[in-house]
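Re-running the complex after MR caught last week's input typo. The corrected sequence lines follow. Everything else is unchanged.
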Amino acid sequence: MLNRYKKAYEKIAMGLLSFMPDEKDLKVLQKTIQKYDSETAWELYLYKQEDDYIGLIGVEKLESELIVRHISVDPSHRGEGLGKQMVQELAELNKAYDIKACQLTEPFIEKCLNEKKEADMPI
Ligand SMILES: CC(C)(COP(=O)(O)OP(=O)(O)OC[C@H]1O[C@@H](n2cnc3c(N)ncnc32)[C@H](O)[C@@H]1OP(=O)(O)O)[C@@H](O)C(=O)NCCC(=O)NCCS
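Corrected-run output:
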């Protein structure tokens, strides 16, 4: 289940964020988390399963669009459908917005959106 990020979970969030290819440098990582802390348009969610936080999805909220800026799943839980689940929950929590990818998240987000379109298509 997705939970809104709180400062108390900063270390966990930074650990998950660091799986993004462009977030390997500590300074970059600190800047990114600061952005989610300070800019109201930037929203971060953590995916909790039982007692563990094992996924993260971060978005920039525009007027009618949600741009997925970051998405990552703990390596020991990949391939279990959590990435897709997070995108689905994000869409359900933000029904008034269209989900879009940025350049960095495009390969996975486009895959999720295409699969959703196919599933929604009338037979
Ligand atoms: C991308 C990521 C979040 C996917 O999470 P996940 O929980 O393993 O994904 P799911 O189990 O929901 O989906 C798995 C499917 O996505 C595909 N997939 C995994 N990573 C992908 C990627 N970077 N681009 C496109 N497709 C990807 C898998 O091949 C699999 O396809 P299938 O359903 O046809 O077999 C995870 O691999 C990750 O944290 N990667 C590191 C961070 C990253 O690179 N984020 C940006 C991704 S563009």
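None of the earlier attempt is carried over here. Helices lie at 10-17, 26-38, 82-93, 106-120. The CA atoms of residues 81 and 104 lie 20 Å apart.
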